[in-house]
Amino acid sequence: MAERRIQPYGTWASPITAALLVERTRGVSELQLDGEDVYWLEARPSEGGRMVVVQRDRAGVLHDRTPEGMNARTRVHEYGGASYGVYQGVVYFSNFADNRLYQLAPGGEPVAVSAEAPMRYANPVLDGQRQRLIAIREDHTVDRPSDVVNTLVAIDLAAGHRQVVLASGHDFYAWPRLSPDGRQLAWLCWDHPNMPWDGTELWVADVAADGSLSAQRQVAGGSQESIAQPSWSPSGQLHFISDRTGWWNLYRAEATGAVPLLPLAAEFSGPQWSCEMSTYAFLAGGRILAIYQADGRAHLVVIKPDGTSREVAQPYAALASLKVRGQVAVMLAASAQEPPAVVRWDEESGRFERLWETMALDIDRAFLSVPEAITFPTTGGESAHAFYYPPTNPDFRAPAGERPPLLTFIHGGPTSATSPVLDLAIQFWTSRGFAVVNVNYRGSTGFGRAYRRRLIGQWGVADVDDCVSAARYLVAKGLADPKRLAIRGGSAGGYTTLAALTFRDVFRAGASYFGVSDITALAKETHKFESRYMDSLVGPYPAAEEIYRARSPVHFASRLTRPVIFFQGEDDKIVLPNQAEGMVAELQRGGVPVAYISFPGEGHGFRRAESNLRALSAELYFYGQVFGFEPADRLEPVEIHNRDRLREPKS
Description:
alpha+beta; Rossmann fold; Thrombin, subunit H; four-stranded antiparallel sheet; globular
């Protein structure tokens, strides 16, 4: 083995380049089974972030079902999901450019089944007996984004494509599910100010021969109970997930009430940001295959009709999008050392087979940092959770006595979570000599309802405290340089980043990706889905206006003296560009080193390869300038306002 070269942290050369990360990685989501064929949505950064329905036939051959120029994506609830369905080879999908639903038969051309109108659709479910689609419809024929109307509709597939509203009156609808005999329809709905992880209702109705609904009744849920993922078993029994015990567990609906199937202090679901999620499915013989989260990783379990269960041995840290046919399951899977993949599990053999990889990872695994789950003390005598990634590169080591710079990663959401799976966005940094801590602050999912609700009224306080506590914990352990602590995040994570830099004196630099700087503006200007989210995270507006102001970094820019770089999509409808632009202007006037890069055509989250490549390279360049090291990469310079005031801050 060659002698490792001695070079300062941050300057190590790495084969995990920005180009490798953004150009060769393809996103995958929303698995579906149609007979023996497997379908999924593939995100292609090289094609401007286009979403393509891909079919893997029984012979293992891949086919793009979405024609060139079309993008199978929806923005229902802004975050979308459930943009397509497939039935006997016929694909029904939402096209992003015009928001219309299309029908695509094998070998044919797409045919629109919804009229040209300012409508959005999700969750297309085929009602074959009545030759119609049942879907969520979002009506945008309104003046303000917060006033859109959500309903459950039926769309006639015959000529004319007449639409009939099946259910209305609630603020939001999701997860329509038709029973196997077509005689019952189940769905979820909820109302402001709740988010779907706060409280949802599960409704069921009888479906008449003419398609009309009758005997609509609520079977579970309420304002203090989150219901997720209703699904009918092959025998016609309704199942769902509820957090009524404090944990999202699996239940079967009976006439006498809900029957728990496997009570655990574990999570069988996650936050319903997307209209599509699938963590359980029905095996042959009345059994259920389910995914749950515990101890920071995914578990796979078979639940038998008699109430007993057995855990399936499997090598993955994260599992999602589970679908079953007979004794075979497909799912998305990822581990700490392998990229996400579509995998197939055969119950009879117990074997897992990787059907399709999100990327060909042809680099030495010695460059990959292995995460360690940590629990650390934080404010209020409580604890929080994170994954720590040490600097890792087989070709280099740091000079004796040097501690690495630490990047604190903040997930978005804020009701979301991070898991210990291979993420080249993290490995990009660790292979260059950065330590990374990926924080599941109080409010994150995966640790029960009580932990999730610790952020109620405390956004901008508890999350910031936990990020600060994580950094201090690692400094105390000798694992990070206290003079080179940086924090980065997108969306809600961008807000936590800016709040930590403004209201705390721990981090020396930061990067905000489409982050919130003025939570008052977020409460007043954002889209319908999140227009009342701030009621729980901060307080009802305008009654809590003073709290909003006190926690908005833009009003306290004079207190932010650390260098910051901002990245923003010009078409962002969730966090408007004026949020970043206002903060940048304040910092620039205040003499703070600040950089701002905006991306035309990008929204909330960057989809194009060139955007992600530029952002990641610019962030590395920025830290090099702030912390005084020269990255090994050849990087395009970034315009930094007040560059002359860049220096390594004193502790």
